[in-house]
Specification:
mainly alpha, 359 residues, single chain, Rhizopine-oxygenase-like, Fatty acid desaturase
């Protein structure tokens, strides 16, 4: 492909439609209807348990941070609180956007809206954005959620470990929406009937942030912002790290999630923060399987998938050299090898991409 245009309105978007990549039929591992029905069963219990733990921990950590403020002894508590606010809420936003975290819809909607606020992602914009991400995963010009573009911008990626780029753009988009307007790219995938909801939420959020800033000014302290707002910056590193591993260095413009997504075994703490999204090939193949069932799904279909990375450091050690190589050759990607028990990649459809992987 050479130089890529990631705009939803550019030539690569048109090319994806013309070549059949847009809204294509994706590869799925064979699994029986009975097994899939069992895996797709929803339950309130796991998500209620995890949500109580999450918010309980956030209250305790913020309370200790406030009690010890402004001493440096408060720093560890703020750092931990920040990861729960600025990273764990990313996975909660994600899973609740699918409507699968809880069996009860209003619980999903409540957590989705809270997590969207923490992550500064308009819940109506991002619901449609994420639907497109699953329909056209890493299809250039169609997927609005590609985290690592080619060639990779390492300065941007490092800055985003502290939320700097994402938050800057989120503030701009929030203010644009609050003024009663949508960005043209948003308007390309948000139904017209939903667009007024985007504007309403943005105006509510502007009012909340204005109140928090006013309280900080009145107190002569950034303490209110340490609770609401700033954790999106100082707690972002974990969700950026895990988010880059989802697809970074892998194929684009293919219709097999085994080529463009990565599963990584992670420690229990990261799995709690990430809500099992480390099983990412599995999630993309079967997005309606709840997060708490993904380990079971993995066991049932792993015979057809590339071997998972055994840890976060191992996955980073695989991804980073591939990204560096893409600085010199945009078409290069890391091809995940399949086990002998797997059905092969579609060489006819992916021949161009698979050839680039070998370069």
């Amino acid at each position: 492909m050479g130089l890529r245009d990631y705009s939803m309105l550019g030539p690569d978007a048109r090319r994806a439609v013309e070549t059949g990549l847009a809204a294509a039929e994706w590869y799925h591992t064979d699994i029986s209807r009975k097994e899939m029905k069992e895996l797709m069963k929803r339950s309130d219990d796991p998500a209620i348990r995890d949500t109580v733990i999450l918010f309980g921990a956030m209250i305790v950590l913020a309370g200790l941070g406030i009690a010890l403020w402004p001493s440096w002894w408060s720093a560890p508590f703020w750092l931990a609180y920040g990861v729960l606010y600025g990273s764990a809420m990313d996975s909660r936003w994600h899973e609740c956007s699918h409507g699968t975290a809880f069996k009860t819809r209003r619980y999903n909607d409540w957590l989705y809206n809270v997590a969207s606020f923490c992550m500064m992602r308009n819940p109506h914009t991002w619901r449609w954005s994420h639907a497109r991400h699953h329909t056209d995963t890493i299809i250039v010009g169609r997927d609005p959620e590609i985290a690592v573009m080619r060639p990779p911008d390492f300065i941007r990626l490092i800055a985003n470990l502290f939320g700097l780029v994402d938050v800057w753009h989120a503030i701009g988009r929030m203010l644009l929406n609050a003024s009663g307007r949508l960005h043209p790219e948003e308007a390309s995938y948000i139904p017209e009937a939903e667009q007024h909801r985007v504007i309403r939420v943005a105006r509510i959020w502007v009012a909340i942030y204005a109140a928090v800033i006013a309280l900080a000014v009145a107190m002569g302290s950034i303490l209110p912002l340490m609770v609401i707002g700033l954790p999106r910056l100082y707690g972002a590193w974990h969700h950026i790290m895990t988010g880059l591993l989802q697809h970074g260095g892998l194929a684009d413009n293919v219709i097999d999630h085994r080529l463009n997504s990565r599963t990584v075994y992670m420690n229990p703490v990261s799995r709690f923060i990430y809500w099992n999204m480390n099983y990412h090939v599995e999630h993309h193949m079967f997005p309606m399987v709840p997060y708490h069932q993904l380990p079971r799904l993995h066991e049932k279909i792993k015979h057809d998938l590339p071997a998972p990375n055994r840890s976060i450091p191992e996955a980073l050690a695989e991804m980073i050299p591939a990204l560096r190589r893409q600085l010199r050759n945009e078409d290069y990607f890391l091809k995940r090898e399949l086990p002998t028990t797997a059905r092969p990649y579609r060489e006819d459809f992916h021949a161009e991409a698979l050839g680039a992987a070998a370069q």
